[in-house]
Amino acid sequence: MSKIAFIGLGNMGLPMAKNLIAAGHEVTGFDLSDDARAGLQESGGKVADPIAVLVADAEIIISMLPAGKHVTAVYTESDGVIANAAAGALLIDSSTIDVGTARAVSAEAEAAGLAMVDAPVSGGVGGAAAGTLTFMVGGTDEAYQAAKPVLDVMGQNIFHAGGSGNGQATKICNNMLLGISMIGTAEAFMLGEKLGLDAQTFFDISSTASGQCWSMTSYCPAPGPVPSSPANNDYQAGFTAAMMLKDLLLAQEASVVADAATPMGQRAAELYTQMADAGHDGLDFSGIMKMLKGEG
Ligand code: NAD
Question: pTM of the prediction?
Answer without folding.
Answer: 0.94
